[in-house]
């Protein structure tokens, strides 16, 4: 008889333990879900506000709230830009789409040529280079033999 009561008692404790675990999970699950959604929402807003996406020569720029969205977009990126008030994240955000500017290719500096006299046994390559540096701003020199003459030729930025 005592054995039956003891088994019943143990079974009841196991049931109560399962109920407590289930109640705890029911309370924790919504909190974890809410925190996860808040993190994803916040990171989505930050990413959409701080990126310029360059795909197929169209760029996108997040400009914050939708107040005066079109005017701000056109003022920042020109009259051909298009603005959209994006409400997909819950908070309305102004997205500005415009043609990406191709970065200008830097033009190499023009190189001019000059002369600094003759190269000789007393004035070889390093001497020629020094003479060119003194004569032309940013200049460098080298000896170039033309027939029986050795000329000190200089190159410098124009």
Provide structural commentary.
The protein has 158 residues and is of the alpha+beta class. Among the domains are: 50-99, no CATH class; 111-157. It is built from three helices and seven strands, in the order αββαβββαββ. The chain has helices at 2-49, 69-77, 125-135; strands at 52-55, 58-65, 82-86, 93-99, 111-118, 140-146, 149-157. The protein starts with a helix and ends with a strand. The relative contact order is 0.09. The model is unreliable at 45-55 (pLDDT under 50).
Q: Could you give a quick summary of the protein structure above?
A:
By secondary structure, the protein is an alpha+beta fold. The chain is 43% helix and 30% strand. The radius of gyration is 39 Å and the shape is elongated.
Give the secondary structure arrangement, pairings included.
Layout: H1 2-49, E1 52-55, E2 58-65, H2 69-77, E3 82-86, E4 93-99, E5 111-118, H3 125-135, E6 140-146, E7 149-157
Antiparallel strand pairs: 1-2, 2-4, 3-4, 5-7, 6-7
Multimeric organization? single chain
Major beta sheet, strand line-up: 1-2-4-3
Number of helices: 3
What would you call the shape?
A: elongated
Q: For the CA atoms, what is the radius of gyration?
A: 39 Å
Structural class: alpha+beta
Strand content: 25-35%
Protein name: Defensin-like protein
Family: Belongs to the DEFL family.
Organism: Brassica napus
Subcellular location: Secreted
Distinctive features:
alpha+beta, antimicrobial, plant defense, elongated, LCR, single chain, four-stranded antiparallel β-sheet, transmembrane, 158 residues
């Amino acid at each position: 008889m005592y054995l039956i009561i003891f088994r019943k008692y143990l079974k009841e404790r196991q049931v109560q333990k399962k109920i407590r675990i289930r109640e705890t999970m029911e309370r924790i699950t919504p909190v974890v879900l809410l925190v996860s959604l808040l993190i994803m929402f916040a990171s989505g807003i930050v990413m959409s506000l701080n990126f310029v996406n360059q795909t197929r020569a169209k760029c996108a720029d997040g400009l914050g709230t939708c107040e005066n969205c079109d005017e701000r977009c056109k003022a920042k990126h020109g009259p051909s830009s298009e603005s959209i008030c994006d409400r997909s994240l819950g908070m309305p955000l102004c997205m500005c789409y415009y043609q990406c500017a191709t970065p200008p290719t830097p033009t190499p500096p023009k190189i001019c040529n000059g002369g600094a006299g003759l190269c000789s046994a007393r004035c070889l390559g390093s001497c020629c280079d020094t003479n060119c540096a003194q004569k032309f701003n940013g200049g460098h020199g080298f000896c170039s033999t033309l027939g029986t003459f050795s000329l000190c030729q200089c190159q410098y930025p124009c």
